[in-house]
Amino acid sequence: MDRKMDSSSFNISYSPVPRSMYLGKERSFAPSHVADIVIAVENNPDRCQIISLTSSYEGEGCAEIAFEMAAALSSSGKRVLIVDAESNDTGVYREFRYRIPASMSSLLQDISSHTYTVLHLEKTNVFYCCFCKSGEEKKTVYHSERLASFFVSLRGAFDYVLLVSEPTAALSIASAAQISDASIVIVEAERTRRPVVAQLIENIKLNGGKILGLVLNKRPLYIPPALYRCLYK
């Protein structure tokens, strides 16, 4: 099935794959995290459609939270695309790598290409694509105008686009901030210090990004919201 976008020259097609093991799987973070994020996204007056999930270090849980967010947002019939800009060794990528037709970076480099295929998780409204495939250079050169145009196409094809971008990702945090409506910062409890988080937030803002919220992930104890804000405001 192809879905042509009126807003740009790109076409989006879909390739079905079995339902992801990530959807509905028990996580190490509190369920209230996802519920709070979904409420913030759906009730935001600025219409946050493209949302970047990022962190200061690898392995803080961006990809897992993105899948849980996608499951929650799509449960009401919304079409949600996860764009995995992570390195090729992430658990998310390993699950799908043999089924990915082409990477996003290859599309952005090939100016003659105008059709892109994303994976559709069967029996859900969740879709998936990656920025780089195995064997491709993570730091590729691409046309920034094509990147912007392509994300305009994604706005027309999906209700939400969740962009997973950690420090080692193929798509830089700065670039992710520029093409996103808002960013969610993921912080691993008892690992990432406040000055490091503050630097990441400042980097996002300097590149025109907006902070939608912060998730303190993998916390062993409950932290009241008021203290949460004092720690990372």
Strand and helix map with partners:
Layout lengths: L1 E3 L6 E7 L13 H12 L7 E6 L6 H13 L5 E5 L6 H6 L7 H6 L5 E7 L4 E5 L13 H14 L2 E5 L8 H7 L2 E7 L5 H13 L4 E7 L7 H8 L1
Parallel strand pairs: 2-5, 3-7, 3-8, 4-6, 4-7, 8-9
Antiparallel strand pairs: 1-2, 5-6
Question: Mind explaining what this structure looks like?
Answer:
The chain has 233 residues and is of the alpha/beta class. The chain has a single domain (2-232), classed as Rossmann fold, CATH 3.40.50.300. Helix content is 34%, strand content 22%. It has helices at 31-42, 62-74, 91-96, 104-109, 144-157, 173-179, 194-206, 225-232; strands at residues 2-4, 11-17, 50-55, 80-84, 115-121, 126-130, 160-164, 182-188, 211-217. Strands 1-2-5-6-4-7-3-8-9 form a nine-stranded mixed beta sheet, sandwiched between helices. A hairpin with a 4-residue loop joins strand 5 and strand 6. The longest helix has 14 residues, at 144-157. The protein is globular and about 45 Å long. The termini are far apart. 39% of the residues are buried.
Provide the CATH top-level class.
Answer: Alpha Beta
- By secondary-structure content and strand pairing, the structural class works out as alpha/beta
State Rg.
17 Å
Can you count the helices? 8
- Which word captures the global form? globular
Distance between the termini: 45 Å
Q: Look at the structure and name the CATH superfamily.
A: P-loop containing nucleotide triphosphate hydrolases
Could you tell me the strand content as a percent range?
15-25%
Query: What do we call the CATH topology?
Result: Rossmann fold
- How many individual β-strands? 9
CATH architecture: 3-Layer(aba) Sandwich
Low-confidence runs: 1-8, 24-31
Query: What is the average per-residue confidence, as pLDDT, rounded to a whole number?
Result: 72
Secondary-structure element series: EEHEHEHHEEHEHEHEH
Q: How many domains in all?
A: 1
The helical percent reads: 25-40%
What characterizes the major β-sheet? 9 strands, mixed
Across the major sheet, the strand order is 1-2-5-6-4-7-3-8-9
